[in-house]
Structure formats: C-alpha cells, structure tokens
Write a structure and sequence with these properties.
Length: 224
Amino acid sequence: MTHPIIESLRGGLVVSCQAYPGEPLRHPETMAQMAQAAVLGGAVGIRCQGLADIAAIKGQVGVPVIGIWKDGHEGVFITPTLRHARCCMTAGADIIALDATRRPRPDGLTYAQNVEALHSEGALVMADCGSFEDARMAVDAGSDIISTTLSGYTGEREKTTGPDIELLERMVATFPHTPVICEGRIHTPQDLKLVMDKGAWCAVVGTAITHPTTITSWFAQQCK
Ligand SMILES: CC(=O)N[C@H](C=O)[C@@H](O)[C@H](O)[C@H](O)COP(=O)(O)O
C-alpha cells in the first residue's frame, strides 16, 4: 500500500523553494514565505534545501515537505551522507531526498545502506536519479519514490532543454510499482502537463516558480 504522504502527492505539483548562499532571497523566513505562496497557488508539496529552511517551512505549511541538504558542488552533494539525511529528518522533513547515483559517497556507505538505515528509523526516501541505471539501483534498494532530478547533471544523460521525457517514460514503464517524480527543467505549464500525461506520479518545479533572478534573465534576454 502506498504511504498516505506519498499518496497525497499523486497527480499534483510540488514546488521547490531554494536559494543559495550569497543570493538575495537566501533566508529561511523568505523561503517559508515562498512556500506559503506556492501552497496558496495549489502546490501539494514543497521541496527545500538546508536544515534551517526545512524547519522554517515545516512551521508554516501543512503539505508534505521533501527535505534535502546540499553540501558541496562536486560529485555526490544532495544529502550525501546518512548524517545529512538524519539531520533533514530531525529538522522535520516528511520525505528525505538523496543523491541516488551509483557514484561513491563521502561516508563510504552505499545508497542501499542509506535507505535501509532510514527506513528502520521511519523515514520515506526519494531517490534523485541521473540515469535509468541509477533508477534501477534505487528501486532495488527499496526507495519509496524515484525521480529524474539529476538527469543532465551527472554525465550519464544529455542535459535536455526541458524535462527528460525519455528517461521519465522509461522509468514509468519499467517500474510500475514505484512512484516516479519528474523533476528538472520543467519551465512551463505545458511542460508540466506533458510530464503528467507521460505518467509522472507528480512533478517538482523549482526555478520557473521560485528563482526570480533566473526568470528575470529569461525575460531580459528578449530585450537584447
Ligand atoms: C541538479 C540539482 O542540483 N537540482 C536541485 C535539486 O534540488 C535544484 O537545484 C533544482 O532547482 C530542482 O531540482 C528543481 O529543478 P528546476 O529548478 O530545474 O525546476
């Protein structure tokens, strides 16, 4: 049976609210306000980064929160170790998203060992995959959700202009018993409709909703 928290995301839009060190919106309260605004617009879940943001957002919204902790910029950096994952749990995340590539992890544990430990502690795990082979590994490891998050960022898949539809379709067709989230480069409502039509359990949109600097640049480029 699908866990009620995952069931509540089915068919809906999850909004990723993230701002990075040095960026003007980098403040937990600002991200919590962003998350509240997204929920008012119809988001069924929020994805967010960093312990302070997870806690601030959990304090303000009733929808499930997918928590990550990005540490570093190279190799495995999305919730790279079991320690990072446990901290996300403690901060209040309902679902912990982890890098689910087949690359070595900084603490020497395998992805499967992370899932096993987190499940024994009551967490739900979302696998951020960069390829079909990652998705297979993540399903074999017992992930609660698999996603296309890292497609185009790990060298295994070309970085498509929009979402990686080909990978999404293959994951949906091959793993019918594991919810597949489409995440990454969904930039328009039309992109979102397409990924839902292709069988995504739900979709995560970040930049196109919550990163005004990038959105502004899309418009500004048209003035040059
Ligand atoms: C690759 C990576 O680090 N992705 C991150 C994962 O949390 C975020 O930077 C993205 O904003 C998120 O995946 C949503 O994608 P998009 O912003 O394209 O809608």
